[in-house]
Amino acid sequence: MVQEIKLPKVGGSLYTYKPQRAVAFELPQQSFQSRTAFAAAHVVCDPFADTDPLNHAQIDWNATMAFRHHLWSLGLSVAEAMDTAQRGMGLDWQKARELIRYSVAEARSVGGRIACGAGTDHLLPGPTVTVEDVIAAYEEQCAFVETQGGQIILMASRALASCAKGPEDYERVYGKILSQVSRPVILHWLGDMFDPALEGYWGTSDFQPAMDVCLRIIREHADKVDGIKISLLDANKEVTMRRLLPNGVKMYTGDDFNYPALIRGDEHGFSDALLGIFDAIAPAAAAALHALDAGETERYDSLLEKTVPLSRHIFQKPTYAYKTGIVFMAFLNGHQSHFRMIGGAEGARSAVHLSELFVLADQAGLLVDPELAVKRMQQVLTLAGI
Questions:
Q1: Is pLDDT of 2 > 90?
Q2: Cβ(55)–Cβ(93) under 8 Å?
Q3: Coil, helix or strand at residue 265
Q4: Nearest to 123 by CA among 146, 145, 143, 139
Q5: What are the counts of helices (DSSP H) followed by strands (DSSP E) for the chain?
Q6: pLDDT of residue 1
Q7: Phi and psi at residue 272, to the nearest 5°
Q8: Under 8 Å CB-to-CB from 110, ≥6 apart: which residues?
Q9: Which residues contact 356 (CB under 8 A, 6 or more apart)?
Q10: What are phi and psi for residue 186, nearest 5 degrees?
Q11: Residue 41 pLDDT more than 90?
Q12: pLDDT-derived band of residue 166, with 50, 70 and 90 as boundaries?
């Protein structure tokens, strides 16, 4: 029998909450037919590592790979070494290389699809960094991903945002890299709400001219672009750009606020998915996409709409702290034995925030074992002095 739990409110009062029974999702036994769906996956840190967690955090490789197998078993593809894995916010390029190598091998062992982030994060922005330095950094990481056998997700570059003088520098860098890759890549336009260092990406802070720059790059190299993931948390901007993409180039939604409608689409098209929230809501996402394949749009809507309040809560400002909520969901659902993160990021959200996350996850039917979730929620509250 599921026990009640006392949860905190803003201001210091407590209220009693009793979780509902777990929901049994109808899960597919195959990959999806009508949409491509990547879950950007988190990493599990090693709580026993005797190292500085801020600068030398270690990864629990067994738990990290087990979670990727969980995603593949649901029919989802894995987007590896992205910002959800704390790339550039705890996960450096050295650790990302290890992660990519292990994950690509594991994907190959089960026939799972994987795409991996390639960026310039081993090149620190600074006054002496040049566009040529950025190109060389991209070349190094892209070569590594392709050597391992992974598809490239060409991540936005803090160094490029820092040194570029205007749109022409972005066109030069992206044109050079796209001319060299051996298979089509996924571009990533990450908004500054996810990473403030990327403000003004594509050479301007205004959406329309920034989109024009990005579209020129895509059109000139359409044979080397599988698609583009935009993470701007603005459905209208995504739809506007989606309708202007060349034939054969996908729009991968990165909108963790509006993904149900964007994936469902309209009379002019739809978005595929490359989402951090799919890490946390994987069973519901898989069941919903299975329903969409079957033409059951009402069931699709019902399954995914229940997850939106949870996603909006996890991705509330400061948006870049969303990784804490993603890992907390994995902890509640038994995918890892602890609530620790590389870089000490488990402290990025308050006990009240995590308590509300617990309730919203339960209301979406996403607590796989409510009794375990209550026990683990109580552990976190006790640690917080509640």
A1: no
A2: no
A3: coil
A4: 139
A5: 15, 10
A6: 64
A7: -80, -170
A8: 69, 72
A9: 313
A10: -105, 120
A11: yes
A12: very high
Alpha carbons 44 and 69: distance in angstroms, whole number: 14
Q: How confident is the model at residue 371 (pLDDT cuts 50, 70, 90)?
A: very high
Asked if residues 286 and 28 have their Cβ atoms less than 8 Å apart, the reply is: yes
CATH number assigned to the domain covering 34-314: 3.20.20.70
For residues 209 and 16, what is the distance between their CA atoms, to the nearest angstrom? 51
Identify the CA nearest to 322 among candidates 303, 335, 305, 341. 341
Q: What pTM was computed for the model?
A: 0.96
CA separation for the pair 296, 301 (Å, rounded): 9
- For the beta carbon of residue 132, count every other beta carbon within 10 angstroms: 12
Tokens 């089509």 sit at which residue?
184
Is the C-alpha dihedral spanning 346, 351, 353, 355 positive or negative? Answer: positive
Q: Residue type at 169? A: D
Span 2-18, mean pLDDT? 93
Element housing 188 (H / E): strand 185-190
pLDDT, residue 235, reads 97
Stretch 220-233: mean pLDDT: 97
Quote the CA–CA distance of 93 and 41 in Å, as a whole number. 16
Write out pLDDT tens, residues 115-158. Answer: 999 999 999 999 999 999 999 999 999 999 999 999 999 999 99
The amino acid sitting at 130 is T
Rg, C-alpha atoms of the chain? 20
Pairing of strands 14-17, 5-8: antiparallel
pLDDT value at position 49?
86
Tell the residue number behind the tokens 């550039």, with chain if given: 88
Q: Is the dihedral of CA 224, 227, 233, 238 positive or negative?
A: positive
Phi then psi for 218, rounded to 5 degrees?
A: -65, -45
For residues 11 and 9, give the distance between their C-alpha atoms in angstroms, rounded to a whole number: 6
Q: In terms of Cα–Cα distance, which of 34, 65, 71, 38 is closest to 186?
A: 38
Q: Residue for token digits 């991903």? A: 145
Q: Taking residues 21-47, what's their average pLDDT?
A: 89
Tell me the C-alpha distance between 214 and 194, whole Å: 19
Tell me the one-letter amino acid at 102: Y
Q: Tell me what the mean pLDDT of segment 44-55 comes to.
A: 84
Q: What is the C-alpha to C-alpha distance for residues 59 and 61, in angstroms, rounded to an integer?
A: 6
pLDDT of amino acid 31: 81
Q: Considering only CA atoms, which of 357, 356, 327 is closest in space to residue 339?
A: 327
